[in-house]
Amino acid sequence: MNEERLKQLQQAYQDLDLFPLIEPENIEKFRVEYGRPVLVRLKREIEASTSDGKVIFAGHRGCGKSTLLKRLSVEMADKYFSIFFSISDLIEMSDVSHVNILYAIGLMLLSRASKLRIPIADSIKRSLLDWMNTTETEAVEQETTAETGLGGVDIFKFISLKLQREQKFRKELERTYEKKLSELVRNLDLLAATIQNATKRPVLVIIDDLDKLDLNIIEPIYRNNLKALFSPGFKIVFTIPIAAIQEPRVMGALNSEGIVRPHLFPVTKFYSNQDCRSPNAQPIEKNIKLFERVLEKRFPPGLLSSEIAKKTILMSGGVIRELVRIGRECCTECMVQLEIDPDCDDIKINDEILATALRNLRNDFARQIGSRQLYEMLAEVYKTLKSAEGEGFIKLLHGLMVLEYENDALWYDVHPIVIELLRREELIES
Predict the structure, then answer these.
(1) CA-based diameter of the chain, in Å?
(2) Burial letters for 406-423: b for 16+ Cβ neighbours within 10 Å, e otherwise?
(3) pLDDT reading at 87 higher than 90
(4) Cα 261–381–295 angle (5° rounding)?
(5) In this structure, how many other beta carbons lie within 10 angstroms of the beta carbon of residue 145?
(6) pLDDT band with cut points at 50, 70 and 90 for residue 179
(7) What is the spatial distance between Cα 350 and Cα 106, in angstroms, rounded to a whole number?
């Protein structure tokens, strides 16, 4: 077996992990300048907003929001006490609520203040940490090996792990704060004011990965409990799925709280809506080049030809997550072939490997679509380049089967990998 090629494939597979560029070493290694206009608009709105301004940031999953928000946090740090965190690092994603989002904000602010040795009143610490019963407190003492008092770093790690892993713990937190939410918010405001006085910078909290929640969790948070979620008196950036802002009741709730228009991270277009069905249309070169740089950062020379790279890019639909997902699947298929045929000295990603990778991902989409009704809705979107009515369309948008693009007006298209499924269902011409 070609061990050198195997190591190259393994490294490329790791480099194509679906991680946002959060850690400095990953930013240095993989960063490609992407979405700068969106970043600047977010900065300007945050700076221009009132002291308790709230910003909603929407986009398809995997379009690059997390990486951009981390950059936003870094670039705002000279003017703000900027906190960036992923809700998925603190709370089990199937059990997120407005109550534990607010609690997570307090926990992250208190943790950062503790690390910076900012003196925080014991009453504020107790309000966030002393709700645990005696059994839980004893567990803290047993499981931590360093400082365990109020404000100690280990207690934050302990609570975070409990929030992630134990439903009972989350339910106890909900019961504790649900009836005294105003007290929780008041202590969040006191905590933020203490931090601002100590650092001479206003607090800015950026919460990532709320857009990755299932829609049945998102809607109650943003529709029924938005006033509570927006009640802290400092600046917060929330993420939301692009599918959720298609829901009139969610947008109505956002409008009632002063959000006129969520900020959107658009999908990268490779064709205009006028050209996307033309067999002779040429893709937008600058956008192809951008995605080529993403692949070049992750693939060693010789593993991916420029021709195959371009085919991979076009099949991504303009979503960064889909680009790396296709690339990763190609690496897997190459490693399988290398195992099956160890005498092949120069295995690389070719048309056959790419076709197999796309087949695997296409089958994943087929499992999500399922019903004939959704297939027919996809065919309608393909033919009209317009949205469709009903919850089915929201599901397709949330699952990336349908992608939203922007020109002077919004338009929609079927994910390139899914189009072949429509042909096989004989809903569009081959």
Answers:
(1) 71
(2) eeeeebbbbbbbbbbbbe
(3) yes
(4) 75
(5) 7
(6) confident
(7) 51
